[in-house]
Amino acid sequence: MLNTPTLAALADDLKNGRTTARKLVDDCLANIAEKSGEGPRAFIHVDSEAAIEAAEAMDRLRQANARRRLLPAFRSRSRTSLTSGGR
To answer: Is pLDDT at 32 greater than 50 in this prediction?
Structure first.
């Protein structure tokens, strides 16, 4: 089994400045694009630009110490949000 971090661990990394939303999105987009993985079969469309814009907006909020919910981008429709702009 791969050493995949939990959402709680990722949230802690974000909170403590060990990573950024942009880096997490870039990692996800790279995994989706990996030809030898399941990304090409699992996703019909990936709106990379929208995902990057959303991540950068969250990073700006985090830098400004804005209050926000825990992992707002990770909701039950996160896969749909990344693939179809939430439609």
So the answer is: yes
Per-residue tokens: 5: 């971090």
| DSSP state string for 31-46 | HHH-TTSSHHHH-S--
Compute the 3-state secondary structure of the chain and give helix, strand, coil in percent, each to the nearest 5. 55, 0, 45
CA 68 – CA 34 distance, rounded (Å): 32
Eight-class DSSP state of 73: T
Q: Which two tokens stand for residue 64?
A: 């400004």
pTM for this predicted structure: 0.70
Alpha helices, DSSP H, located in 34-77: 39-42, 48-63
Those residues with Cβ within 8 angstroms of residue 64's Cβ, 6 or more apart along the chain or in another chain: none
Q: pLDDT tier at 76 (50, 70, 90 boundaries)?
A: very low
